[in-house]
Structure formats: C-alpha cells, structure tokens
Amino acid sequence: MYGSIYRxxxxxxxxxxxxxxxxxxxxxxxxxxxxxxxxAEGGVLGVLPGTIGTLQATEALKLIxxxxxxxxxxxxxxxxxxxxxxxxxxxxxxxxxICGPEPEITQLIDYExxxxxxxxxxxxxxxxxxxxxxxxxxxxxxxNNKPVHLLDVREPHELExxxxxxxxxxxxxxxxxxxxxxxxxxxxVVFCKAGTRSARALExxxxxxxxxxxxxxxxxxxxxxEVDPSLPIY
Length: 234
Prior knowledge:
Blueprint: E1 2-6, E2 9-13, H1 23-26, H2 39-42, H3 48-65, E3 74-79, E4 84-89, H4 111-114, E5 132-133, H5 135-143, E6 149-152, E7 168-169, H6 172-175, E8 188-191, H7 196-207, E9 213-216, H8 219-226
Parallel strand pairs: 5-9, 6-7, 6-8, 8-9
Antiparallel strand pairs: 1-2, 2-3, 3-4
C-alpha cells in the first residue's frame, strides 16, 4: 500500500510484485539526500494526510475482502487545489532489482545507507543540543571577529528570499560530494531555513571527520528574528 503527500498533492497506489510492478519498479534509485523536504520545510495542507490515508484504507479493505479492482499497476495523482484525480498506468520493470527475473536484492537492506543519509543511532554526544549554537551566540562571535565559516545548506532559490552575507552555499543534496571544498580545521556553523536540514548536514560532517562544527539553532529564520530583523521570515 503506497501513499505520499507534498504540499497540495498526493499519490496512492498498491504494489504487488506477484501481479504487477513493485515500488522499486516505479523508483529504481533513491533520491539524493535532502532532495525531498520534510513537512516542516515543504509544508502540507492539513487535511491532505486524511484524504490520502482514507484512500489507502479503502484499497486495503478491497484487498482484504477480495472485492472491486485494486490499484495494482495504477498510480493515482491527486491535486487538492483543483480537486482533480488523474491515473497513470504502471508497468513492471523487466530489469527491476527486486521483482525482475534476476533480482539483485533478496533481503532487507540498510535503509539509511540505501537513501544515502547518516543514521540516527549515534554514540552519546555525537549529535544533540551540545552541537547547537544560537543566533545571538553566533552574532557575538562575529562581532568579536572570531573566525567562523558559515555554511548554508539550503537550495539556491532560497537565497532570493534571505541570506547571510559571506556564507558559502552547498545544498544538502550536494554536500556529500563537495566535502573537499571545506576545511576541517575551520570553525564552522551550518544553517538552513529552520535547523532541520542543517542538523542532517551536521551528522554528515561529523561522520566525515569534521569536529569544529555547530548547527545554527532555528536556522536563518532565528537569525532574522533575533539578530537581523531586516531579513524576511519564510
């Protein structure tokens, strides 16, 4: 049973490799880390989870009761803004790594590694509040001319909304492949919009051997509220 939501859109399907495509047929490879924002970052219409969840429950009941026509081999696209439902036919991928004639994956895998993001089971003290820095603390460091490298892990279009001067932009999805551009000897503060993506970036940096790093608590929005009110909050 598959369902997904983003902002005003939703998707629903039923994956059954015995009689149709599987999830891996539709999405052969994982997205780059940070490509898909969280609900806090991207936003979701409040009623959308209920709408998609009800449709998923309907499909589940049809399968349990053996009635109707399940959405195997079909992907439903829902747009809440214009209340439209579209259906896309899905076909089995003959080279699928899961359900193809010569499957490469036959057992459960490390999902965190598959998605290219660091896990959440760190040793005590690796990631937590001790790695945070507040906007006021960062402003004090800059005021006292203490060297600090600012790393912005947002997307390029977000710079048009607000920015902190002299910050280096490396979107979260590109960070793993651009670590060579950063200096492990530098004091570094990572930030994003509200602190979610930068926390994930911090985990990645720590796993790569960076130790002089901090996460700007509350992100650039906290900086706008507490330090530079000329910046918009978005």
